[in-house]
Design brief:
Layout: E1 5-8, H1 14-23, E2 25-27, H2 35-45, E3 49-52, H3 60-64, E4 72-75, H4 85-90, E5 94-96, H5 103-118, H6 121-129, E6 150-154, H7 158-168, E7 173-177, H8 184-187, E8 191-192, H9 196-199, E9 205-208, H10 222-227, E10 232-236, H11 245-254, E11 257-262, E12 281-283, H12 292-310
Parallel strand pairs: 1-2, 1-3, 3-4, 4-5, 6-7, 6-9, 7-8, 9-10, 10-11, 11-12
Helix pairs in contact: 1-12, 5-7
């Protein structure tokens, strides 16, 4: 029996490519495809599945351009705000994501950003790269001690809870707000605060862990940044669309925010270069999942979903 044909429309790690070729008649381009290029190759090869990721914007028209042979679009990421899920389902195409495999790495990076923003790691590193020939005295280059601070978490899902777990190792007091309160066994001592407005004034550090919603207005605006205490630290490993970056830049320039740690931006990769000019921002290029272990697991999870659907079973991670 011939192997089903699938299109892997983004570059993947070698282990993922090897498995795709072993289990399927896999089309593996040497570049990341956009929606139009995905449709062209999907039609050309009559594929039954497309493996893709958040860089490809699948609107209703793009989904309509896919051939009728496509039965599943498997995302290698947890987010799916880059595609019109309703349009896919209307055509009978299953949509899946990879909700569990990114949790630990994203939480690790969130903690890195918290520590780096508080301790001015970017500035220290630049001093050393420049050759460090001038000594510093007691009042110079002072950061904030993250240990013992109050951490506010906006969005207490898998990643938010994993960040809370790590923060407890630094003796942080953890508070969170969420659509609904978690069961006590999942809170693990974290304090539930019923609204963002009630949470913000109590945060020494605020970390975002909400999913993005297409077309939604930013949550962090001039008004919400102003509700944080002066000298707070802001961290975002969730979605750049959650933040009004003009408001963020003004809060950093004015000193209302002590620092920020950012892995995501409203425009990627062409992010707002004004952020690059601010010494009190620690920046990473959307790399929360960028470890060998996690990127392999992301690809394998997408292939697991493809295998299930093409075998006539329900998707493992339906959106």
């Amino acid at each position: 029996m011939p192997k089903p044909s699938i299109l892997v429309a983004r570059r993947v790690p070698p282990a993922v490519a090897t498995r795709a070729q072993a289990e399927f008649a896999a089309v593996l381009p040497d570049r990341d495809l956009n929606a139009a290029g995905t449709a062209v190759l999907a039609v050309e090869h009559g594929v039954a599945a497309v493996v893709t990721g958040p860089r490809v914007r699948f609107d209703a028209a793009s989904i309509g351009a896919l051939p009728r042979t496509v039965r599943i679009i498997a995302n290698t990421s947890v987010g799916h705000d880059h595609m019109d899920v309703a349009a896919a389902k209307a055509r009978g195409i299953a949509v899946t994501n990879a909700p569990d495999v990114l949790t630990d790495c994203t939480a690790d990076l969130a903690m890195l950003l918290i520590l780096a923003a508080c301790r001015r790691a970017g500035e220290y590193e630049r001093i050393m790269r420049a050759g460090w020939r001038q000594g510093f005295g007691m009042p110079d280059n002072l950061g904030l001690r993250p240990s013992g601070k109050t951490l506010g978490i906006l969005g207490m899902g898998r990643i938010g809870r994993a960040v809370a777990q790590r923060a407890r190792g630094f003796s942080m007091q953890v508070m969170y707000t969420n659509r609904s309160r978690l069961p006590s066994e999942l809170e693990e001592g974290a304090e539930f605060v019923p609204s963002l407005e009630a949470l913000l004034p109590r945060c020494d550090i605020l970390s975002l862990h909400l999913p993005g919603t297409p077309g939604a207005l930013p949550i962090m605006t001039r008004e919400t940044f102003a509700q944080l205490p002066r000298g707070a630290v802001f961290v975002n490993t969730a979605r750049g669309s959650l933040v009004d970056e003009d408001a963020l830049i003004d809060a950093l320039r004015s000193g209302h925010l002590f620092a920020a740690g950012l892995d995501v931006f409203r425009r990627e990769p062409d992010f707002d270069l004004r952020l690059n000019e601010l010494s009190n921002v620690f920046l990473t290029p959307h790399v929360a999942s960028a470890t060998v272990e996690t990127r392999d697991a992301m690809g394998f999870r997408a292939l697991d979903n493809v295998a299930a659907v093409l075998a006539g079973h329900p998707a493992i991670d339906p959106v």
